[in-house]
Amino acid sequence: MVDEIYKYTGGTKIVQLLLLAIAKLCWVLPSVYSEGEKSIVLGPIESSLERKQVPVDLGRTSPALASRVGKALSLHGGLRLSDTSSSVFSANFSPVGSGGIRLELLKGNPKTVFTTLSVENESMELALSLACDQMVEKILGIPGFFSGKISYLSSLSGHKEIFVSDALMSSARPQTSFSKITFNPSWSNKGDGIFFTSNRKVFNNIYFLSIADRKITTIANYRGSNLAAVQNPRSSQTALVLSTSGNPEIWLAANPLSRPVRLTKNRSNESGPTWSPDGRRMLVTSDARGKPQIYEVSLSTGKLSRIATNVSSHCTEPAWNPVHSNIFAFTAAVNGGFQVCLYDFRLRKTKILTSGNAHHIQPSWTNDGRHLYLTQRTSSGATRIMLLDTEFEEAKPTILHNEKFGNCSQVSFYYPN
């Protein structure tokens, strides 16, 4: 067919180049080209996203383990599940005893053993997640996040309660049962408990829930509203949002049980404190100019300095990247809805990460500084937790759970050191 077109057009140079481009295009189209009785089966088209991902097959991994590993691969974004003939790496996962996993990675053509390691933990599930993290690190050179855990809110019982789940939301456990208003869950920096706000005793107070023994400790019950607590990633220092002075302000406590000192002193409303990776800086939301915007607050003077995101007059919920200190995620009102965005201090530019008719809010980073948990809220008010790979522009948020988990929101992520 190509030869016939070539003869018909006179065989000019430009036509030759055009035909070469068509031939290359045909090579990746998922179709069958027939000439007479001969048929050539052409390969499936490969998306621009797939070309950026490293293909991995699961070799001799048993179906039971392959199911969970396959889910991890599909959610990561940097890797993708492939067959043996087109993969770059082969990953063989096998159980060892009652709580261990052996991982054998192979590379090349033909594939030879690249590395072998074993992981042990109190459960096979957690050992497998840790082994998946090791796989990511060996192949991509970045940390995995699969053995982390999240706290979030779910209305499964009819009231918003705190749940804890593994990073992939394979299973979840309720942590509270107050049948009251509960919100703003936030992991302690050691992962031993969760700060949260609740009106379980009439007024909004801040509490700490110990994961080990379910003991609840009151952190702040001052006059007015006690709204949130977020701990410094590098110390016991804790930022609190309190309205005991009249309007919501940022207060700092040397540790969760010490008396806080007021940091911001103005007539505006501050909320959503987020610490820099080194614990030396802080971003907040403030309506100091009338509408909510993102500000950096001086930890010594309380002075607010606005971050010119230049994307919206309504910006909230900053989340500082735990790896790349020049980046933070936030929520902005754009195109008639709310979408999650990224701001880069170095470039002084904002990139909108999500789109569509549904709202995307409440970003929360994983430990690798690459993935974001976020909440999607539909026009009906239903909410669900999604995971987004921010590395590739072609990546889209992936839903992590079904309706059996209830309406879920407000993720806080913790990864054990």
Structure description:
The chain is mainly beta and 417 residues long. The protein folds into three domains: 2-41, no CATH class; 48-140, Rossmann fold (3-Layer(aba) Sandwich); 149-414, TolB, C-terminal domain (Neuraminidase, 6 Propeller), CATH 2.120.10.30. The chain has five helices and 31 strands. It has helices spanning 2-9, 13-28, 48-52, 63-76, 124-140; strands at 32-35, 38-41, 54-57, 79-81, 89-96, 100-107, 112-120, 149-154, 161-166, 172-174, 182-187, 193-201, 203-210, 216-220, 226-231, 238-242, 249-253, 261-262, 270-275, 282-286, 293-297, 304-306, 315-320, 327-334, 337-344, 349-352, 359-365, 371-377, 383-389, 398-399, 408-414. A five-stranded mixed sheet has the order 4-3-5-6-7. A four-stranded antiparallel sheet has the order 10-9-8-31, with no helix packed on it. The chain is globular and about 70 Å long.
Give me the secondary-structure topology.
Elements: H1 2-9, H2 13-28, E1 32-35, E2 38-41, H3 48-52, E3 54-57, H4 63-76, E4 79-81, E5 89-96, E6 100-107, E7 112-120, H5 124-140, E8 149-154, E9 161-166, E10 172-174, E11 182-187, E12 193-201, E13 203-210, E14 216-220, E15 226-231, E16 238-242, E17 249-253, E18 261-262, E19 270-275, E20 282-286, E21 293-297, E22 304-306, E23 315-320, E24 327-334, E25 337-344, E26 349-352, E27 359-365, E28 371-377, E29 383-389, E30 398-399, E31 408-414
Parallel strand pairs: 3-4, 3-5
Antiparallel strand pairs: 1-2, 5-6, 6-7, 8-9, 8-31, 9-10, 11-12, 12-13, 13-14, 15-16, 16-17, 17-18, 19-20, 20-21, 21-22, 23-24, 24-25, 25-26, 27-28, 28-29, 29-30
